[in-house]
Amino acid sequence: MSTRLTPAARHAAIAELDRQGLSARAIAEELGCSQRTVHRARAQRRAAGDDWSWSEPEPDEAAVVRAAAGDPPEGLTWVERRAAIAQCDQWGLPARVTAARVGCSRQTVYYARSRLAA
Fold first, then answer.
1. Can you give the pTM of this predicted structure?
2. Cα separation of 116 and 86, whole Å?
3. What angle do CA 89, 82, 69 make, to 5 degrees?
4. pLDDT by residue (tens digit) across 7-25?
5. Alpha-carbon distance 100 to 103, whole Å?
6. Cα torsion for 80, 30, 74, 35, to the nearest 10°?
7. Can you tell me whether residue 82 is helix, strand or coil?
8. CB neighbours (10 Å) of residue 18?
9. Which residue, among 51, 54, 77, has the nearest Cα to 66 in the 3D structure?
10. How many CB atoms are located within 10 Å of the residue 115 CB?
11. How far from 29 is each of 22, 72, 111, 113, CA to CA, in Å?
12. pLDDT per residue over 34-77, tens digit each?
């Protein structure tokens, strides 16, 4: 049986998991709340003047290589997915092939490409 967290405890737990580099989806699953709750907690921290800045977690290079080769491991993070897409782009692979190798949709490939180009 899970225990319900008070709002203050939930916000503290979200902040701690946020510092570990987890995504909003992973935090929501860990705490048993919605992604919207996580996004709201982040916004409230920013509004309160929390100067902690988020940094992108480091990708696991072995997972990136496997994903780019067409054998994506279970639990590929978004950072690793973007790195694998970037690797496939360096090889000149089309979006359809990249999506099939990495295990995502073509739209995800297009989005990752636009983020890398920005």
1. 0.60
2. 8
3. 60
4. 888 888 888 888 777 888 9
5. 5
6. -60
7. helix
8. 19
9. 77
10. 11
11. 11, 22, 24, 28
12. 999 998 988 888 888 876 666 667 888 999 999 999 999 888 88
- Tell me which residue of 45, 77, 48 sits closest to 61, measured CA to CA: 77
103-111 contacts, C-beta under 8 A, 24 or more apart: 103/67, 103/72, 103/76, 108/81, 109/85
Question: Which residues have C-beta within 8 Å of that of residue 88, sequence separation ≥ 6?
Answer: 68, 97, 98, 101, 102
Residue matched to tokens 């860990």: 30
Tokens of 104: 């995502």
DSSP string, 12-56: HHHHHHHHTT--HHHHHHHHTS-HHHHHHHHHHHHHTT------P
